[in-house]
Design goal:
Chains A, B: Keywords: Monooxygenase, Oxidoreductase. Chains A, B: Pfam families: ABM. Chains A, B: This is Quinol monooxygenase. Chains A, B: GO terms for molecular function: monooxygenase activity. Two copies of one chain form a homodimer. The radius of gyration of chain A is 15 Å and the shape is globular. Chain A has one domain: 2-Layer Sandwich (Alpha-Beta Plaits), CATH 3.30.70.100. The two termini of chain A are 13 Å apart. Chain A contains three helices and four strands, in the order E-H-E-E-H-H-E. Chain A is of the alpha+beta class. Chain A has a four-stranded antiparallel beta sheet with strand order 2-3-1-4, with helices on one face. Chains A and B meet through strand 1, helix 1, strand 2, strand 3 and strand 4 of A and strand 1, helix 1, strand 2, strand 3 and strand 4 of B.
């Protein structure tokens, strides 16, 4: 059943829930993470947005060629150094959604 | 505090949670919704992805110039006709995230 289409890449939504009082602390960490990740050769897209209704809810919209590229990202020095520093200010566990298929017009 | 940047558009993540047995029923409705929405003059981006770990979890990644444009979308004939037909197969309420600010490298 060709009801949906395998996309040529892996899309990821990675959501962090940060204590409101720690937002100013994590912003420079996030800025460094975005800069260094966008410089990775396998990174297609890596945007970090903020929920309009919750300033501690940070949403990464990511695109990678495949799961192996995402694994390379998660093993980088900057990821392994910065993510634990950010996660120390979580108010709830992160939420991760992986998407390899899209629904497209016939 | 210029810690984050107002993006030039409104990004939206709209998530539907559909009963597994209804996925085949909603796919043609989604395909029509994507086709007609992409044809709207104010639509910047409107992609529909499927959660790799939950085939009933459908995720719209949307970009609109502003909230007014999103309101126009929600008032179209195709939205008002198709969304209730899709929502009839929901197993849980939809989740909507609106994002007008991004975190960018310095």
């Amino acid at each position: 059943m060709a009801s949906f289409r395998k996309v040529a890449m892996l899309k990821v939504i990675a959501e962090d829930f940060i204590h409101p009082e720690a937002v100013a602390l994590v912003l420079p960490l996030y800025r460094e993470l975005v800069a260094l990740t966008r410089a990775e050769p396998l990174c297609i897209a890596y945007d970090l947005l903020i929920d309009d209704r919750d300033p501690g809810h940070f949403i990464f919209l990511e695109e990678w060629p495949d799961r192996a590229a995402l694994d390379v990202h998660c093993a980088t020095e900057h990821f392994r150094r910065l993510v634990p520093l950010i996660d120390a200010h979580q108010r709830a566990p992160g939420r991760f959604t992986f998407m390899s298929n899209s629904v497209d017009p016939a």
